[in-house]
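Please produce the structure of this protein holding FE2/S2 (inorganic) cluster.
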Amino acid sequence: MITNQEDGFLRDIWYFAVRSDELKLGCLLSLKLLGEPIVLGRKKTGQPFALRDICPHRGIPLSDGRLIGDELECCYHGWRFNSEGTCICIPSLTEDQNLELSRIKVPNYPVQELSGCIWIFMPSDFRNMELKKIPPTVPDVFSKPAMTEKLTFPCHIDHAVIGLMDPAHGPFVHQSWWWRSRKSVHTKSKVFGPTDLGFAMLKHKPSSNSLAYKILGRDIETEITFRLPGIRIETIHVGRNLVVGLTTVTPIDRKTTQINHLVFWSMSYLWLIKPFLKPFLKRFLQQDRDIVEKQQRGLQYEHNLMLINDADVQAKWYFRLKKSYGDAAKNKEPFINPVELTTLNWRS
Ligand code: FES
Ligand SMILES: [Fe+2]
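Below is the modeled complex.
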């Protein structure tokens, strides 16, 4: 199966699929990623697997069937598949009908589970799959996130990514007493450099106008990395402690994008204030969602984007990185990162 390349989705790369706790042992989970139907399950050992969610016999979603041990049984005629997607039983066959079952296959997606996250590799061509690198990781001191939030944005992944990374919308979209106000706007100057599949805002002291950082303490440094296909990792050092925010942007289809925000922390006092923090996180992401929803109303008439210096340079980098990665994967060449060490200045 060769996938649709016209949808503007990067392939041959790892995407965040679901949190580990969303995939229960013994259950099948059906989801759509990049417009493709996928069924996720766990083997008896707990190891996750992912297959195309369509029975090769007559097209029923395999997720409507059941998981028996490590095998998936289709609900229509009971064909069984192992977790690699190979057919191992067709109940209607008589003993003298020898159909070669091993030739009947359901496409099988590579899956990895790391720090409470399940990642799926989305290939451009299943017959000719070249596994690229490992999914993005948070420091392995964290086995699972402490706080999570999930939201669906009604837009293409590109708008979700550039909307979330946009440094200039803060005082307008996220205006609030605990984040920032229009009055607190001042000039920022931040140094960026290339990283693995993306770029980083190098380690710095966070903005003095963010109360959200102030509650963590005084001795704070933060580093924010962005990498393809749409992964932002903010690592905040608070003295010897660590808070990591992982934001993942995954296309469901051309007009729907899922955002997962996962926070990991090493300090126990944050557990006490978690019930207060969660509504803020939710509200913050909701504000980003609401603004892209409004944007969609305009974009249906006018598709052109205007990206200016320096506030939209990260958005420009995103498109350049995407093109570079896509070309490299297509031509089977090494990826060349187009980002260089740069200082960006903007007011927010
Ligand atoms: S459709 Fe799945 S077994 Fe027939
Ligand atoms: Fe935002």
